[in-house]
Design a protein that fits this description.
The protein has helices spanning 2-32, 35-42, 68-80, 94-99, 114-117, 159-167, 179-188, 198-208, 234-247, 251-261, and strands at residues 44-49, 52-53, 57-59, 65-66, 83-88, 105-111, 121-122, 127-136, 151-155, 172-176, 193-197, 212-214, 220-229. The chain is 43% helix and 24% strand. The protein starts with a helix and ends in a 9-residue tail after the last helix. It is an alpha/beta fold and 270 residues long. Strand 9, helix 6 and strand 10 (172-176) form a beta-alpha-beta unit. Strands 1, 5, 6, 7, 8, 9, 10, 11, 12 and 13 form a ten-stranded mixed beta sheet that branches. A three-stranded antiparallel beta sheet has the order 2-3-4. It is globular, with a radius of gyration of 24 Å. Residues 44-264 form the Solute-binding protein family 3/N-terminal domain. Keywords: Signal, Transport. Residues 1-20 form the signal peptide. Pfam families: SBP_bac_3.
């Protein structure tokens, strides 16, 4: 009897050791294999951003990136003690860029759509927005109903493109690869209207002045905006969530919001 008890105890102890080893090894492996570990080790973080979508991100004549999202990207790199490497992205290429490892994180006006959350990990929001319609100042379009039969510019793979397809079936979407192309189409009269986010529209109004106006109507699809990372890296996602939590209550965040969007950080995302 005593021999059987001793044998059972030894077996249980051995099992406990194996399980403990698996657990600690798994945790260490997860942390070690995270993008966070890679960034901390290499002192470099690769961030996908817009290069032609004011005020989120643009590349100026000197070849330098600047904009609302660029402020966030630089602050993130500083928090990691890392050098930032920017890679230009578009609405359509953001998620593929993550999936192929061309960027450690996407900071490019990524709206929190449920279908996106099925293929890419989204952080807590760093901004909130809606979608607006811009028309030439002398346009006969005055409300959303007037979009029927009109050509409306949007960027491919964007929230406005989805809205036009689902909510404005009588409009005629004209989809472009870049926001700058949509703006040029509106400026040249190739389209009757343009649908973009509140942040992008703020930039359009600043650059186009009295030549354009925004429809006096409630924003469409009010939503949150997040960083995007590749699925499966909870350690990296946890760090980014913690960074955004601290950043959104900082003076730097409020200054960036006012500089690019003309408002304080919304209480909704603090």
């Amino acid at each position: 009897m005593r021999t059987r008890i001793r044998a059972a105890f030894v077996a249980l102890a051995a099992t406990a050791v194996v399980l403990a080893g698996c657990t600690s090894s798994g945790q260490a492996g997860t942390a070690h294999g995270s993008v966070l570990s890679k960034v901390l080790s290499s002192k470099k973080v690769t961030i996908g951003v817009f290069a032609d979508a004011p005020p989120y991100g643009v590349m100026n004549s000197s070849g330098e990136y600047q904009g609302f999202d660029i402020d966030k990207a630089r602050a993130l790199a500083d928090s990691l003690g890392a050098q930032v490497e920017f890679v230009s992205t578009t609405n359509a290429s953001r998620i593929p860029m993550l999936e192929t490892g061309k960027a450690d994180v996407i900071i490019a006006a990524l709206t929190n759509l449920d279908e996106r959350a099925q293929v890419v990990a989204l952080t807590r929001p760093y901004a909130s927005e809606g979608q607006l319609v811009v028309v030439p100042a002398n346009s006969p379009i005055h409300d959303y109903a007037d979009l029927a039969g009109r050509t409306v510019a949007a960027t491919r793979g964007s929230v406005p493109a989805t809205i036009l397809e689902n909510e404005f079936p009588e409009a005629k979407p004209n989809l472009f690869e870049a926001v700058a192309d949509s703006i040029q189409a509106l400026r040249s009269g190739k389209v009757d209207a343009l649908m973009e986010s509140t942040a992008v529209v703020a930039g359009i109004r600043a650059s186009e002045g009295a030549a354009v106006r925004v429809l006096d109507a409630p924003p469409l699809a009010p939503s949150f905006v997040s960083f995007g990372v590749k699925m499966g890296d909870q350690v990296w996602l946890n760090y980014l969530n913690n960074f955004i939590l601290n950043y959104n209550i900082s003076k730097a965040a409020n200054e960036s919001y006012n500089k690019w969007l003309g408002m304080d950080v919304p209480e909704l995302i603090k």
